[in-house]
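Hello K.,

You asked for the raw outputs rather than the summary table, so here they are, unedited. I folded two proteins back to back in the same session to keep the settings identical. This is the first:
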Amino acid sequence: METVGPEFSFHGLSVHFRGPNFKPGGLSEKDMMASFLFNREVSSLFPYLNAVAERAELHQTPRFIRFRHENRFCVFYPQAGLVTPVDDRAQARSFLDRLMAFLNDIYTRRHEITPNHRLHRRVSVLDILKLLPKTNCGQCGYNSCMAFAAALSLQESVPEGCPYMRSPLGEQAIYPVYDAKGNLVSTVAININTAKIGPLQNGPDASPHPDSEAPLEMDPEDVEAANMSLPTPLTPRELEVLCILAEGTSNNEISHMLNISPHTVKSHIIHIFNKLGVNDRTQAAVWAARHNLI
């Protein structure tokens, strides 16, 4: 058994190609996945991982947590885990050594970390975009309203980041319920009437920014570097579609965001898959993440 640290370790490492349609020698050859088993149940650390891990998403049914570490996507179930992308078994083992060290460090410092029990309930980017002024003013810190909507959907930002977003009609707080041993057994959700706790940052009189809508922008250096790795570069529209679909949006949502037909969206996605040498949206998202496009 491969062991790292005194507390958590892994065994049963398996490395395999992603998807049944993988073609050896293609551009997706490095898009491999590593699966493994834990030596003990790890779910007790989920709230702590949710508090400190990058882009963490805690889910209840089924119980798992998804996050990024060293620019790789990680999924932990109570007794097993998945990691992607990896190049081969040796790289997977080396990364898992570091991942177990990261996990054991969190376990050691758990009394210093405030656990985050908030469950991930993703709202579609298109629905969030309806709440924004669509002016791309940049005051939220993102280069477009769509990028800010995607960040809100991923819970990487907060609504107060947009000065033109109206106050909510209500909020919901989720509280943890522990047993006598301190283990999380359930949660209780309480609806809060925000009208009784005073106005929030963005009041009901908030008005849209007058600027005209601007197109989505990406870092030219990242785009150039990403396209140089491909036999046939992605067009600006294909890059835009790739970045949007990587956030988990549907074809219809992309169609509404870009004001193009669903048929055109499907055509762009087919061209993107062919140019990247991938078979599905997850592989495309992994490629975009590896090239710093998302």
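The second followed immediately with the same parameters:
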Amino acid sequence: MLVNGEPNQHISIFDRGLAYGDGFFETIYCCNEAMQNWLYHWQRMRESAERLNILLPDESTFLVDLEKIKSTFSTPRFEWVIKIVVTRGVGGRGYSPNKCETPTRIMYVGDMPPYEALRRRGMRVSLLKYELQTEPMTAGLKHLNRLPQVLAKTELDGTGCDEGIVLNSKGFVREGVSSNIFMIKNDRLLTAPLYDCGVAGVLRRKLIDVSSDICGLSVEQVDFTFGDIMSAEEVFFANSLLGVCPVKEIGNTPFKIGETTRRLMEACLQADTSQVNESKIKEISG
């Protein structure tokens, strides 16, 4: 684990990420020692920093941190996870960020969850009672205030299902507990808009960019209800670690794993061609 580029497992009790959730994070799938979809993650980090008005270190700083992390591996790793956390930094008491001058950056390694079997069999899904509240100023951001997801996951754990469908306060579908939701209906590929709440996932953004090339359908962002989902031909969830994962059952209603979902799933399992170039990393790290 690195804190501001140095081996460390401690942060200040006055760090605003701990005190107020004042920051953002990325969870990145790594394969063959390369971060996948890095350009999408970096783009979201820049947008998060801009919207939260947090000073973001330049890209090369994070790439050097990655090389330091990799240098600690005793043997090569095929699949693993990097988590990057950026907070506003250490400040005094109170909500005002005016005393913060230097952000805190944290990077550490985790194991890749066993999602391959889940993709093969398909997800069992439940509609959750927990609703996301309207927060337009932070909608779409992967900020550190994840208490709504903690509460939704607590409810999901009691169902025995793999993922849950979360609505907003007006009854429209917004996302899963830890992934974005998509459906195929009447030859349309739909996902929920995130103007009021929810997290704009990296794979969601990538699918918006590339789905038409893969399956001939462009992603449309439209409001829809749980009833709309139940009459869809195909439903799947997506995030950067999970990939595209089909739904096989919502409640007691079965869903087929259709051809469009399979094509998107297979395409997203391919190595990302926009990842960081290894020679660039080595040049930066000296």
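Confidence is low (pLDDT under 50) at residues 276-286.

Happy to rerun anything if the numbers look odd on your end.

Regards,
P.
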